[in-house]
Amino acid sequence: MWRHDLVDPGRLLDVIATEGESLSELGRATAPEAPVPSCPGFTTDGLLRHVGSVCRVVTGRLEDGEPPEHWQRDPAEGQSTEEYLRTGLRELHARLVAHPPAEWASTWWPADESYHFWRRRMAHETTVHRVDLEEAAGRERGHIGEDLALDGVDEVLTLWFGHRLFQLGLSGTREGSVAVRTGDHSWFARAGPGETHAWRCTEEEADRADAQVSGPPVTVYLWLWGRLPNRAVTQQGDFDAIAQLWALLRLATR
């Protein structure tokens, strides 16, 4: 079982519900054809459909114990995109509420096969895409809790960098390590030919990395997700190692 001590599991359910409401509200307030700058190729309508589809894939996987072959990919005839999104979120939320976070569930990460994986994954899915829609709507970014941001830093490094790249058969082109520091926590991310690994580490271990990236939790969280530019965080040391981390994360999270 993976370590889950950065954010309360019940809070993750609250985040999914709250961010789902925000996505719906932003969808109503933004033209469906408005482009989403942080998601090239997506419009507002397309991004809402994406989240609604992801909800249905997860719900199907939780029900059947394996990824579903068929699910509702688009709104039904006469169904608005907003209702398609709301229905998907509502059904998934109910499923997650009905099962303890430690209960076994089918996931795509062997290190965490539990309902908590999906609470966490969907909390960050909805949060990051809410930020995307705020940009599309020309609004200032809304609140993200520091505890959620710290958990998001952990997820993007350990799950997406440390595991998703392996699933995709991708790795670094040179040996390089980066320490990510924020909110009294540190992570060590190492990449090279044939490997990408990341884990929470001590300050002493972080000091031995080739490069350092630091900043406030929300800033580091959104930077790792590619939603903030390089100037948003403080960088020191081997800038090529940082550039490699950044480039690999863009491949992992695309």
Question: What order do the helices and strands come in, and which of them pair?
Answer:
Layout: H1 9-29, H2 44-64, H3 81-97, H4 115-137, H5 146-168, E1 176-182, E2 185-192, E3 195-201, H6 203-207, E4 211-214, H7 217-224, E5 234-237, H8 239-253
Parallel strand pairs: 1-4
Antiparallel strand pairs: 1-2, 2-3, 4-5
Helix pairs in contact: 1-3, 1-4, 2-3, 2-4, 5-7, 5-8
Major β-sheet, in short? 5 strands, mixed
User: Reading side by side through the largest sheet, how are the strands ordered?
Assistant: 3-2-1-4-5
- How many helical stretches? 8
Structural class: alpha+beta
The count of DSSP E runs of length 2 or more, i.e. the number of strands, is: 5
What is the ordering of alpha helices and beta strands? Answer: HHHHHEEEHEHEH
Q: Report the C-alpha radius of gyration, rounded.
A: 18 Å
Work out the helicity level. Answer: 40-55%
**Average pLDDT reading:** 96
Strand content: 5-15%
User: What are the segments in which pLDDT stays under 50 over at least 5 consecutive residues?
Assistant: none
First-last Cα distance: 27 Å
Coarse morphology: globular
